[in-house]
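Slide 14.
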Amino acid sequence: MPIRPMIALLLASVATAAPTVAVAAPEATAPKPAAIEADGVPAIPMSIVEATRPYLESRSANFLGWNPVDHSMLIKTRFGNTNQLHTVATPGAARSQISFESEPVLTGSLAPTRGDTLVFQEDVGGGEFFQLFRLDHGRATLITDGKSRNWFGAWSPDGAKIGYSSTRRNGTDSDLYVMDPRDPKSDHLVAQVAGGGWNIVDFSSDGGKALVLNRMSVNQADVYELDLASGKMTQINKGKPASFSDLHYAHDGAIWTISDVGSDFARLGILDRASGAFASKTSEPKWDVSDYAVAPDGSFVVYAINEAGVSSVRIMDTRTGAVRPITGLPVGVIPYAIGSAIEIAPWGTIGLSMASARVPGDAFSIDPKTLAVTRWTQSETGGLDPSHNVEPTLVEIKSYDGQLISGFLYRPDPKKFPGKRPMIMDIHGGPEGQTRPDWIGGFNYLLNELGIALFEPNVRGSTGYGKRFVNLDNGPFHREDSVKDIGAFLAALQKDPTLDPARFAVNGLSYGGYMCYATATHYSPLLKGANCYVAISNFVTFLQNTQSYRRDLRRVEYGDERDPVQRKKLEEISPLSSVDKITVPLLVATGGNDPRVPASEAMQMIKAVRAHGGQAWHVLAKDEGHVYHKKENEDYYFWASMLFWKEMLLGEKAQ
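Slide 15: predicted structure.
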């Protein structure tokens, strides 16, 4: 037999006799939601989906008000894909869903006294062109125009009418309207204004007048009293610009408000209608009053102090001034609310929500006489024991110029994760915002399962530390002072014996997303990656393209791109102008309908990074706006983030 056929026969017999080697099937991957576009993002293994599932199944309950008829609570929580309205009849009773919208409900409010009508606020696809609806037995009836941006203001005390603002006239100015929501044809304009920060915030006891607030910035607002019959508005506050918020008529017609008049911190007091003078009724020398409510009979006021981020709730006797602290609540935070976060029922019971590192957000009541606290809801945490969650440590340092700055550091359990651990610095938005020791949701997975530490800084410009501090970053010429604060934190945390300085990264949302980009441009050698969410990449294009109703409000904070000198500086400090300095991989997430930071901000950044040879993963949710609110989209972005961090910080390469 010729040699070649013989060799072929031998090889064939060897191949036939060789044992079969099993080839591992490729791991299943997570499907993308229909509205998600993932560009440059590796396929997400189902192992990440399964491992994180319990951490993504927690929910919170936000107190929205009392039903004056049956004494039940109105809350907002999520059992499906979006937040919806529910009622709770008694403490510990079932959360009974009453709204069934495909879009998330932002807030809802029941008619005082009557309790017969419920109005809620909702947008479409995160576009923030909010509409008001009346809810009747699970059916929603649109009561605004369906096109403009509308914002709920207040009910009249008798529950006969609501006041709200709308941009329907020209798309920019928030004019003031009043209607009986039972009859949308009663809707009528009561005041035409200029600017996007106006709204009706309360009605007088006889319904003939209304308090109006025009918010121009975090530092400045004007207060007016509106005669509803004539349309005449009279400005009440006088003197230097100051902050005013949460205006309410008391039973005797006095005007209560939170203001920083004459103080570095916001205090609770009464604004005199005749003189415009503000008289503080709280005596705490430090920290802002964040929330309050006045009893229907005026006998007491309940208020909360933002004490280094923690909500400290107190009751004050309005006759004697005596203050009693509430000690039965979780040590945590009253979540942000549209309108009042605290409400006192006609029968005197106080309602509010609280959240902490170990409480996902639940509704509570307080007896104003005994101070007894009752928990109304027990929100699920995905089957996980929340008592195992890490509580943060307050970190305070001096920045580059000696300014005291602080943040909260969450360290993984050293018994489970010995040695130096990687760290993500997560920067809050605003910039007039504040990181507080709140429920951190899915981030608990980073700490409890991956052993990644989390640091949440409050750089200059954050609220909660006085008006001097919040103004330290204003305008284009001080904007990067807050970025230098991040540099100071990075330097300080490098010395922490529990952290690995070779594995630091940055995360940020909204303005924090700008800070995320800026940190990557200034401190790339100290980082392993940056995850920047709905982020500003160029201040000039941002100011030109953000929705017109909010443009002037943002110019006060960032600078005016129409001024040549400011425009030049805004271009200079924009991350897009220094994209060549970014040497770490990016994960960028965007909402396709974002009215605040348009998707174009992400698109131009990704294009520039890739043009310079950089790596950028991009997640775009076409049915979302500024921050994702639909659970399926939130989950996908979270999985992408975990894949990103596992590769960048733990060295587990995505396939």
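Speaker note: Residues 405 and 523 are 19 Å apart (CA to CA).
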